[in-house]
Amino acid sequence: IHRAPWPTVAELASIPAPKDDGSFDLAVELMGAINKKKTELGASTGRVVKTATLAIPETKSARIAAVLSDVLGSTRILEHTLLVRAIEGDAFGVDAMEVAPKEERAPAES
């Protein structure tokens, strides 16, 4: 539950705009590829990833750098390898991924 007050417009006004207007879209695109791979492996999108090998199109490698740490943090990737190469369709991909074991939850108290 979010209990802290939400920032005001005035507080947000001091945050500089991103240098690349498309950085958010790139981050969302890469997160989509990562979450798709998690789903294919039978893991929830919130599952921790031990290792991931990410395929980055040459045309997007410089631009994704600005948001890569945010993407890795939000998708819970602990270790990663980037493979920058020409990719048909210019889409991000995930060549390999090892997800952490599912955390067991304590039984509900009655």
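(ticket continues) Second input and output from the same batch:
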Amino acid sequence: GARPFHTVAFPKQQDLVVSPDGENSSLVIQQDAYLYYGLFNKPKSFQYLKSLPGNIIYLFVYRCVVETPSATLRQGDAIGVVYGEVLNVKLEKGTEILLFEVPEISATEY
């Protein structure tokens, strides 16, 4: 089964930057949101499992190429996962990413 990103990626090359509870010395945000930064020195495949059902995953590619089941992402590209609970990705050597997990906001909340 899928495991959270931070347990399957390279610990020294990715970090939880922001979280609701300061996990792993991350910055605390007053929202059920997570931000991960990753830099991978060799090819890697992983699954990111949402921390909270109903959240949205956004993956931004800063450098290199990322393959997902639905798209090939290059530098500057992004993809969002609204309805699934898991994001499957394949990373090339040298890939640098930002991965956000944020609560979904309905139109009535604006």
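Agent notes: The chain has one helix and ten strands. Residues 5 and 48 are 5 Å apart (CA to CA). Closing as not reproducible unless the customer responds.
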